[in-house]
């Protein structure tokens, strides 16, 4: 015969009621939070997997924000460059208009005035700032305007050549900026006469007709200036390059007043003043120069305001200015369009990565939901049953706790 004390009866009953009540509270918490795993002890294995999935979602959200930032920066740069192309196209139209031989001095002044306005607009675009106030074309020097006027009133680049990149997925980075030096400054310049030692002589008809011949003439070296020198009183010309180290004089040598081609470059030396019997006048032609788009427009403005076209030499200089400006503007447009193409490729990469991140996020959330989210129908059913069990246990305990041997005496 087993004897059970009143203390055991009460302790066992209370423990049983507390266990049923604890289960009931857990079920109520699941319904109120919508989660069936509210603490690790609820399901240790599921809790560990949920923690990893939460970390994965945080990583995806961080990369998603980075991708959104990258897209915004790239679209802003793309829009800015599109505006720059429009301005350069207008400058080109004005340059073509300036080449009209029937223009008066007032007409040229009017064109010059509009060119100055367009130059200012282009500088404003090159100094575009993002939402945080940083200049997008200044490289790593975001707090410094990309372009500003120097003491001579010419626009110069003030940033560096840094390029910012942003990670938009594990091991996937995308450049989100481009320095203004590469876009607006390092632009191939058309052939031009850099200097002349002649008071009356000039070069006309300067044109690059065979780029391959020019590169082959300097192979394997780097193209440098061409120097055309009047060799003697007969007007024969000698052509050298790379500081005189390379002799490109054709045989027989060309003469003053006649058009000739050397290393793919066509030109004519006109009306030079000779200094017999030794070397005479010389002309230096730049073949590998760089010039910023700002410098191109500034040079055009200076020419409109200073070249008078009162002599064959000044007329030739003006015509050469128009031709060089048009070529330089075309080179600038090509440089910007190439950058726009590159930006399009980056945007495509960002968009595809964003789509991948969104898909990954949805898949991860679905798996987490299967592990974490409560089934309300099941939870409510359990709650009803547990409430019934608790009520029955309470009533049973109340009856049992009242039993006593004294009732039988």
Automatic annotation (TrEMBL):
Classification via InterPro entries: Flagell_FlgL (IPR013384), Flagellin (IPR001492), Flagellin_C (IPR046358), Flagellin_N (IPR001029)
GO CC, alphabetical: bacterial-type flagellum hook; extracellular region
Every Flagellin C-terminal domain range: 327-404
SUPFAM superfamilies, alphabetized: Phase 1 flagellin
Record-annotated Flagellin N-terminal domain positions: 15-140
N-terminal signal peptide: none
Pfam families the record matches: Flagellin_C, Flagellin_N
GO BP term (any one): bacterial-type flagellum-dependent cell motility
NCBIfam families, alphabetized: flagell_flgL (TIGR02550)
Protein name per its UniProtKB record: Flagellar hook-associated protein 3
């Amino acid at each position: 015969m087993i004897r059970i004390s009143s203390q055991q009866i009460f302790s066992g009953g209370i423990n049983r009621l507390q266990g049923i009540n604890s289960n009931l509270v857990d079920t109520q918490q699941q319904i109120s939070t919508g989660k069936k795993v509210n603490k690790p002890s609820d399901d240790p294995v599921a809790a560990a997997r949920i923690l990893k999935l939460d970390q994965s979602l945080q990583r995806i959200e961080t990369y998603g924000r980075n991708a959104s930032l990258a897209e915004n920066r790239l679209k802003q740069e793309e829009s800015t460059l599109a505006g720059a192309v429009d301005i350069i196209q207008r400058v080109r139209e004005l340059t073509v208009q300036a080449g009209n031989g029937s223009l008066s001095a007032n007409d040229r002044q009017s064109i010059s005035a509009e060119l100055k306005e367009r130059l200012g607009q282009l500088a404003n675009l090159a100094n575009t700032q993002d939402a945080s106030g940083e200049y997008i074309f200044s490289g790593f020097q975001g707090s410094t305007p990309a372009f500003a006027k120097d003491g001579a009133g010419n626009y110069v680049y003030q940033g560096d050549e840094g390029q910012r990149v942003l990670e938009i997925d594990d091991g996937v980075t995308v450049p989100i900026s481009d320095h203004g030096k590469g876009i607006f400054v390092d632009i191939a310049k058309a052939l031009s006469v850099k200097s002349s030692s002649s008071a009356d002589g000039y070069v006309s008809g300067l044109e690059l007709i065979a780029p391959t011949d020019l590169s082959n003439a300097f192979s394997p070296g780097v193209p440098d200036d061409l120097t055309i020198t009047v060799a003697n009183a007969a007007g024969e010309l000698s052509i050298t390059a790379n500081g005189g180290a390379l002799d490109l004089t054709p045989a027989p040598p060309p003469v003053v007043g006649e058009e000739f081609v050397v290393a793919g470059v066509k030109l004519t030396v006109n009306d030079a003043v000779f200094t017999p019997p030794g070397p005479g006048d010389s002309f230096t032609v730049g073949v590998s120069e760089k010039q910023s788009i700002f410098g191109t427009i500034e040079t055009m403005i200076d020419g409109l305001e200073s070249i008078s076209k009162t002599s064959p030499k000044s007329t030739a200089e003006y015509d050469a200015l128009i031709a060089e400006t048009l070529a330089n503007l075309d080179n600038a447009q090509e440089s910007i369009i190439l950058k726009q193409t590159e930006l399009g490729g980056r945007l495509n990469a960002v968009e595809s990565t964003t789509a991948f991140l969104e898909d990954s996020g949805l898949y991860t959330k679905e798996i987490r939901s299967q592990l974490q989210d409560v089934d309300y129908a099941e939870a409510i059913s359990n709650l009803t049953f547990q409430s019934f069990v608790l009520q029955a246990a309470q009533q049973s305990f109340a009856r049992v706790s009242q039993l006593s041997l004294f009732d039988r005496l």
